[in-house]
Amino acid sequence: MSDIKGSQDKISINTDPSSPMEESATNLAKNFDHMDKAAKFLAENEGKYEPMSDIEIKKMIRKTDWFLLPTLFFTATMGAVDKVALGTSAIFGLRTDNHLVGQQYSWLSTILFIGSLVGMWPMSYIIQRYRLGKVLGCCSFIWSALTLLLCACHNFGGLAAIRFLMGFVECAIVPGCSLMISIFYVKDEIPHRTAIIFMFMSSVINGALSALASTFGNTIPTWKYIFILIGSVSIVWSSFVIWFLPDSPINAKFLTNKEKYFTVKRVSDNKTGIENDEWKWGQVKEGFFDIRIYIIMLFNFGINIPNGGLSTYSSIIINNLGFSSVKSSLMGIPTGIIASIATVFFTWCASRWNNKRCLLAIISLIIPLIGSIISYTCSHDNTAAQLVGLYFQYFYFASYVVMISCVQANTAGNTKKAMTYSFNYLGYCGGAITGTQTFRSNQAPRYTGGFISMLVGYCACMLLSASYWLVCIILNKKKRAFLESNKGDSESSAAVKGDIYEVVESSEREEAVADLTDKQQIHFFYTT
């Protein structure tokens, strides 16, 4: 039996090295009160099932893909549609009907992200503390109801209040979906599945619904029909999510008991944790001193400057080129298709080229950089060049998703993951707020401030991707040096306090099923 004494800063584990892997996991789960629930689940089901063949494992992964990915995709997409819908609604009369003047329209987009900033920390705690699937479903339902309430507004104050509340609950979606992917798939499977979930299809759905709404007549303004359509679809969908979406593989309705067991077992090899509802302040402290969190937060800030600006103003930019309101909404559909194709391509490359994710993020940023230059330097009368430049700018989304996959692969410990995703969202909101405010109405149609902010953002993100790459290489070298100096201890692991590793006896498997951070696991190496 194991004698285990644990704390967040130091862990001492004594085991019999000759005991089988499953027995070691059993002992660990029985004696460590704050273990990841996955460890307890593995221990309770130990020896019940025959090993799965490679064909059975592939079938199990495909089943998870068919049930989980569409659910998360549509949940995340409907959460993004309302941001794009604001821009489409603007060209169908929202600004005039609500008597918006000056920068009030820009503030309607900005205030949603301010609401997200306010809601980020309480939502981060709720995601970690309560059932993940139910939290995502409930948040989706609330923002859907708020979308319907936008139709009752008739001035800036009412719109701003509802937009703030929408941002408050919506901030759970991106970190929640990211966390869900990290607990169902192994590291190499994460990038392209993250791309599918966050595929930029909101523009496609919004364009189609907006064009449909324009055919409903003039009983009420078209912009209200747009929000009624989006809110109604989203409310029906979120009701399904509340019932269906699991919290982890342990309670996934679409998996058999055997498949649940082997999903948990294979995902435990990520060493990033699967399910633990205890909030651990030691992991919070470690997160605050992890430089990678701040690099990614700044990256998200820079990359979401174009996100905030383009999601709010792209329909207006297209409309300013001389297209009608209906055509402008339809011309926005290619932005989503282009962003989705770019994202799928670069994340597909990331899943096949080991440790090239940061490099791919840098390469993918070159295209939107060129697009921004084309849009700004070409004559506004050159409609074809303006559209090409605008569409090129949507390649930015690929680098965003590639770096998200890096964070998913490189962050262990359930509390630390929740905190890290919150910091990511902090950068996301900050960048989006900046983007919406740098596009000034009095600078139309060139939007000089917006162009400069995007140019600076792209260049800064290239440098930040390279910095993250370098930091991970340095941390991996330190861990390898430590293991090399202690290579005589075949079962040695490490507890970490500050930047000092302390040798303890535990297996790599025990690290994987314990709720330990990436820093506490000496066998954990960072993906670059």
From TrEMBL:
Membrane topology listed for this record: Multi-pass membrane protein
Main location: membrane
Any one Gene Ontology molecular-function term assigned to this protein's record: transmembrane transporter activity
Gene3D superfamilies hit by this protein: MFS general substrate transporter like domains
Parts of the chain that traverse the membrane: 66-92, 104-123, 135-158, 164-186, 195-213, 225-245, 293-318, 330-351, 358-376, 388-409, 421-439, 451-475
Bias (Polar residues) ranges: 9-18
Highest taxon of the lineage: Eukaryota
Chain intervals for the UniProt region annotation (Disordered): 1-26
Keywords (A to Z) from UniProt: Membrane, Transmembrane, Transmembrane helix, Transport
Location relative to the cell: Membrane
Pfam families to which the protein is assigned, alphabetical: MFS_1 (PF07690)
GO annotation, cellular component aspect: membrane
InterPro entries found in the cross-reference section: MFS (IPR011701), MFS_trans_sf (IPR036259)
SUPFAM superfamilies assigned to the protein according to its UniProt record, in alphabetical order: MFS general substrate transporter
UniProt protein name: Allantoate permease
Species this chain originates from: Pichia californica
Lineage per the UniProt record: Eukaryota, Fungi, Dikarya, Ascomycota, Saccharomycotina
